Amino acid sequence: MGTLQFHRVLISLFPLVFLLCLSSLQFISAYTVPDKYFINCGSDSNFTVSGRVFVGESSLSFSFPKQSSTEKDTNQSSPTSVYQTARIFGRQFSYEFSISSSGYYAVRLHFFAFSSSSSNLSTAIFNVSVPNFLLLQNFNASDSSKSALVEEFFLRIHTGKFIITFSPLESSFAFVNAIELFILPNYFIPNETRYVSVGGQGNNYVGILSLVLKRTYRINVGGDAVTSDSDDLWRTWELDDPYLHNREDARTSSSDSNLNYQGGDESVGPLATRYTAPNTVYLTAKKSSSSNLTWGFPVEKNSIHLLRIHFCDLESTSLNVTFFNLLIHKNFTRMINSIDVSTRLPTPFYYDFVVDSDDYGHVNITVAPDASAPIPNAFLNGLEMLQIVDPSDSVPGYEAEDKQNHLAVVLGSAIGASVLICIGVVGFLIWHLKFRKPDEKKAENSDWGSVPNGGGSSHSRLSEVPNINLGLKLSFHELQHATNNFDARKIIGKGGFGNVYMGVLKNGVRVAVKRSEPGSTQGPTEFQTEIMVLSKIRHRHLVSLIGYCDERSEMILVYEYMEKGTLKDHLYNSKFPRMSWRQRLEVCIGAARGLHYLHKGSKGGIIHRDVKPTNILLDENHVAKVADFGLSRSGPLDQQPYVSTGVKGTFGYLDPEYFRTQQLTEKSDVYSFGVVLLEVLCARPAIDPSLPRDQVNLADWGNLCMKKGMLEEIIDSSIKGKIDINSLRKYGETIGKCLQDDGSDRPSMGDVLWDLEYALQLQRGAIRREPHEDSSSGASQSIQLPNVRRLPSLSALSEVDDNSIVRDDETDSEAGLIFSQLNIDDAR
Ligand SMILES: *[C@@H]1O[C@H](CO)[C@@H](O)[C@H](O)[C@H]1NC(C)=O
Ligand SMILES: *[C@@H]1O[C@H](CO)[C@@H](O)[C@H](O)[C@H]1NC(C)=O
Ligand SMILES: *[C@@H]1O[C@H](CO)[C@@H](O)[C@H](O)[C@H]1NC(C)=O
Ligand SMILES: *[C@@H]1O[C@H](CO)[C@@H](O)[C@H](O)[C@H]1NC(C)=O
Ligand SMILES: *[C@@H]1O[C@H](CO)[C@@H](O)[C@H](O)[C@H]1NC(C)=O
Ligand SMILES: *[C@@H]1O[C@H](CO)[C@@H](O)[C@H](O)[C@H]1NC(C)=O
Ligand SMILES: *[C@@H]1O[C@H](CO)[C@@H](O)[C@H](O)[C@H]1NC(C)=O
Ligand SMILES: *[C@@H]1O[C@H](CO)[C@@H](O)[C@H](O)[C@H]1NC(C)=O
Ligand SMILES: *[C@@H]1O[C@H](CO)[C@@H](O)[C@H](O)[C@H]1NC(C)=O
Ligand SMILES: *[C@@H]1O[C@H](CO)[C@@H](O)[C@H](O)[C@H]1NC(C)=O
Asked: Domain of life here (predicted)?
């Protein structure tokens, strides 16, 4: 199929795919996150609530101190069963979590103060803290004897160890029924925003992300209360009625239109994404055409809140006919008009402010119709207030903590991974049984040559694709504008294909614009392949395609902008600081996750074919993403290796077996990745012609050194001596396996990922030794981490049916893909 024809198909199918997506949106609750912990405290059994499996403590092998016990509510009328049990602490105790991705997280603590024969949980008084912050002070849950109390916090957590500490007051005790900890979507909370005080407006409030936010109000205006089932991030939204001053003036407004979400992955408001709030919040509102409507929220005196106000014009049929004023504290006014943010209706959007409370402890919000508007109307769809919690001097930070005092529980990532698998599989099965519709099978079954926007054909994948990426086609004009007419000063990369420019789209999203030059190595085939592959898949560790342009015989691809450049830069460019061993491992783990997803996550598997450090990019948080899919191949469904007509790839990284047989398998990527691992360790290029002959090819040289047991000799001098020897050994073994001559002797990408994570654990010192070894370190030294071992079931399973079980951050959606494939096979 020629490029033109392909695009025509893409465009003609678009409305269909789009409608299919919209009609299925309501069923999606597949926010998939890398690190998540849902714990059913005080219980040995798992319990599922709204798609989350709260795992019993016994499956997590916590070792609780003697002063801790469990309680069970014998009164049958508890609201749900995570609230039937509680973990009780007679003295200070910390839950410890292992975090593999830095980011902004949600922490939810569930309290339900039931009474049992031995204790009355209403009488507990305690503090809850995390490093540097006191979350709850002299807290008692007596309000929760009728219905559960859920305290929710947002905070930044860095890779490594994270603890939540419960400190009972003298002669009292602490308890908790359930704990949630999961990462929020990128750019969910802004780092700085407009500061509005009672006395008028001030400058921006900066550094929000360094503080903790505590939910005080979350309101769905004009609609029903929203439960955690209907929210992708399991939030609850309450009714606005109790807060509305002049209820008689308000009319409710609701709609069942399709919302035009226009917020992108990387934009910080005002355009909402699907995760900003559930559809139901934007689809209902309260409005008035003549009176001002005011909502008042009692808050702590002298407190400061992040105020997020949600709008969506559900009634206007054209833009700029309805606009009105938003007032905060009657002294700050802002005009609200959809035309300022969008060209389409109804588009959900929101504004963030930081507000202080008035002298009486109130925050008052007013919407005031503007009589000069063609159709005067003022409305409000939703509102959130998150109290800003400052660091507390009385709480130790990450460094100062005293290990002896914490009877800590290490939740190793290995355990986490097995938990994730179960959560994903169980969650998916439930979803699958409940919602799968027959017409999707058809869509899944079609060859993706004819459904290029494959992301639209499956719920699980769609849920990863914000709407901005469904409209992939961009005009040449817009790209000219974005790159200042392809200004040479905006060039951030050059290659055989042409230049890569840094650009800014109209919506403020920063992008990398790759423009092929006529006669370049990137021909129409690569262009088409890349659009097909990238519009089909989305993953945290794969660079996202934002759009493409094929006007005027241009071939332009627009990607998310990767601020920190390529892995190659970080290895060789002196402008970048040398990466530590841990950072290097984290980058490799990220790239391995991306490749593993390519291989196992999509129908039939995708082979990258050009794995090398220039194709591994880092975003501003140093999250590694695999890029450049121009050469990639989709493996056929029957798992037969793909036989190519010409060997492609980059010399130095090329799988020798593929070179010999021209048979391409996923194991070719594993080989190339092995070379990358070696390069990361040694910081020398894969091919260096200036060296003695036996050293020119890094893979050969590395293999030789490893055989002689002198891998340590060739380590990059900037990290030499800083690597834990066990971590190095594991890493070296992994390289050795990847570089096996025979593809079948090489591990799968999933196994490589597993090994790298293990090497990272060893570097962190979380594990002292390999389980089968019994050498120097005494048992007393090793922190209990019972489940850290290679789970034989993982590789065994993948050998049985090649539907490898997933153990990375896209659990839900990968499970989804795997199962949809099984389904197709069944259907044949
Ligand atoms: C059991 O629950 C009901 C309803 O919540 C409550 O009225 C009753 O007091 C509870 N009994 C005990 C022993 O807590
Ligand atoms: C539990 O303690 C609270 C507060 O002290 C008290 O109001 C309540 O009656 C107690 N419940 C039982 C069942 O003793
Ligand atoms: C429990 O907390 C509430 C506020 O949430 C407070 O009014 C009450 O006095 C507290 N009870 C005790 C015994 O501290
Ligand atoms: C709880 O927090 C307050 C305020 O920081 C502190 O004064 C108190 O000692 C803490 N209580 C415990 C038991 O840690
Ligand atoms: C409103 O803000 C102005 C300054 O911006 C201030 O002078 C005035 O006192 C404020 N009014 C009220 C009611 O706080
Ligand atoms: C947020 O802003 C503060 C203050 O400008 C800065 O120190 C911090 O690095 C920023 N955090 C993020 C995640 O951008
Ligand atoms: C919106 O309409 C107002 C008058 O109602 C006009 O002054 C303004 O220029 C219009 N804005 C745009 C962007 O068209
Ligand atoms: C906010 O509303 C409350 C009533 O809910 C009122 O007492 C207070 O004066 C209002 N504050 C301002 C600044 O308008
Ligand atoms: C409604 O708000 C506007 C500010 O936009 C104000 O001028 C007007 O006086 C208010 N009306 C009432 C009845 O409070
Ligand atoms: C609970 O889930 C965990 C992990 O998801 C699993 O290992 C364990 O067997 C489950 N326990 C029960 C009782 O189902």
From this structure: Eukaryota
Residue nearest to atom 2 of ligand 6 (CA): 207
521 within ligand 5 shell (Cβ under 6 A): no
Q: How many CB atoms are located within 10 Å of the residue 288 CB? A: 21
pLDDT for 176 beyond 90: yes
Q: For residue 121, report the distance from its CA to the centre of ligand 2, in Å.
A: 8
Return the pLDDT at 107: 97
Q: Is 610 a catalytic residue?
A: yes
- C-alpha torsion sign, points 72, 76, 77, 81: positive
* 171 within ligand 4 shell (Cβ under 6 A): no
At CA 820, angle to CA 824 and CA 429, rounded to 5?
130
Tell me which of 663 and 125 has the higher pLDDT: 125
Q: Which residue owns the Cα nearest ligand 10 atom 7?
A: 59
Which residues neighbour 653 within 8 Å (Cβ) at sequence distance 6 or greater?
A: 610, 611, 612, 671, 672, 675, 676, 686
> How far is the C-alpha of 775 from the C-alpha of 759, rounded, in Å?
18
CA dist., res. 533 & res. 541, Å (int): 14
How many other C-beta atoms can be found within 10 angstroms of the C-beta atom of residue 46? Answer: 18
Q: Alpha-carbon distance 225 to 317, whole Å?
A: 27
Residue 156, burial from CB neighbour count under 10 angstroms (0-12, 13-18, 19+): middle
Which pLDDT score is estimated for 633? 65
The stretch 88-107 carries a mean pLDDT of 89
pLDDT in tens, 752-771: 999 999 899 888 875 554 44
Dihedral pair phi/psi, residue 474, rounded to 5° = -120, 150
Ligand 1 pocket check for 115: Cβ under 6 Å: yes
CA distance 744 to 740: 9
| pLDDT (tens digit per residue) in 123-139 | 999 999 999 999 999 99
pTM: 0.56
Give the distance, in angstroms, between the CA of residue 567 and the centroid of all CA atoms in the same chain.
21
Q: What is the pLDDT of residues 548-557, one digit of tens each?
A: 888 777 888 8
Give 271 or 1, the one with higher predicted confidence: 271
Task: List all residues 6 or more positions away from 15 whose beta carbon is below 8 Å from its beta carbon.
Answer: none
Please compute, for residue 89, the number of CA atoms within 13 A of its CA located in the half-sphere on the CB side: 26
| Residue among 352, 250, 357 at smallest CA distance from 296 | 357
23-39 burial string, b = 16+ CB within 10 Å, else e?
A: ebbeebbbbbbbbbbbb
Cis status of the peptide bond prior to 346, with omega within 30 of 0: yes
Question: How many whole angstroms separate alpha carbon 217 and alpha carbon 305?
Answer: 10
Tokens of 11: 């465009």
Does the beta carbon of 320 lie inside 6 Å of ligand 7? yes
CA dihedral 698, 700, 702, 705 (to 10 degrees): -140
List of domains in the chain: 3-28+411-440 (no CATH), 37-183 (2.60.120.260), 212-389 (2.60.120), 470-560 (3.30.200.20), 578-821 (1.10.510.10)
**DSSP assignment letter at 81:** G
Angle at Cα 123 formed by Cα 117 and Cα 126, nearest 5°?
Answer: 125
Provide the terminal-to-terminal Cα distance of the chain, rounded to the nearest Å. 26
Q: Calculate how far, in angstroms, residue 128's C-alpha sits from the geometric centre of ligand 1.
A: 27
Q: Which atom of ligand 1 is nearest to the CA of 145?
A: 5
Which residues 6+ apart lie within 8 Å of 588 measured at CB?
Answer: 624, 676, 677, 680, 756
Question: Could you say which ligand is closest to the alpha carbon of residue 331?
Answer: 5
Q: Residue 186's CB: how many other CB atoms inside 10 A? A: 18
Q: How far is the CA of 216 from the centre of ligand 6 (A)?
A: 24
| pLDDT per residue as tens digits for the range 694-732 | 888 899 999 899 888 888 889 998 898 889 988 999 999
Which residue among 240, 358, 610, 808 is the active-site one?
A: 610
Strand, helix or coil for residue 313: coil
Q: Which two three-digit tokens encode residue 375?
A: 């159709």
